[in-house]
Amino acid sequence: xxxxxxxxxxxxxxxxxxxxxxxxxxxxxxxxxxxxxxxxxxxxxxxxxxxxxxxxxxxxxxxxxxxxxxxxxxxxxxxxxxxxxxxxxxxxxxxxxxxxxxxxxxxxxxxxxxxxxxxxxxxxxxxxxxxxxxxxxxxxxxxxxxxxxxxxxxxxxxxxxxxxxxxxxxxxxxxxxxxxxxxxxxxxxxxxxxxxxxxxxxxxxxxxxxxxxxxxxxxxxxxxxxxxxxxxxxxxxxxxxxxxxxxxxxxxxxxxxxxxxxxxxxxxxxxxxxxxxxx
Length: 279
Prior knowledge:
The protein is of the alpha+beta class and about 280 residues long. The protein has helices spanning about 1-25, 85-90, 120-125, 160-165, 210-225, 245-250, 255-260, and strands at about 45-50, 60, 65-70, 95, 130-135, 150-160, 170-185, 205-210, 225-230, 245, 265-270, 270-275.
């Protein structure tokens, strides 16, 4: 009997000791603090390209014509173009063959890219011609001309004869107005490969959309003088200038320096000579 009581006491003592150990343990349920609630992760979204504004048929796409729209991947429209530098580069300068409403997804079926076959022929309307003009950093507006811009073409040349004698040896005239640019260098784009119009790049040729008669005028102009391009504003209702500008109009000093001497007579008296001018 005494042995049984001893064993019971021993078991009770072990249970008490084990309970104290569990209570003081850092892993006990009593000492465990509940973890702070964490915010759920934001839903995964993806960006795709849409028209930033209504794009009429014939538009050459610019960066400002493209915007982004974010959706969950499961709601991505069919054939939509996801945003990336490569995707944007391929759309720069692309032709929109049919009307696109603002906010509409831009797909490869909605545009004709410069490298696509027949692009240039599609860009040109019936009866139009494409003529390239040689430019430099000055005549090409420091490389700031892009496909889709509208420009005026100025011809500057030197003349001889009576005009030169009166200080009019340099003359400039606007030979074409409101001409659309369809290409810069060999890329019919606004930097499609990312380095066509990078910093420091200067275009060497600009291709213009002109009529057959205007194409002939451009060809002749490149032979007789220097052609320069002037960018026009988007909406310009001012009538085109038809009067030439001469060197003497810019610098009146040219008139005096180039004016011929008045007629005169040389008088010889012995070993003395003098010139008399008739005013």
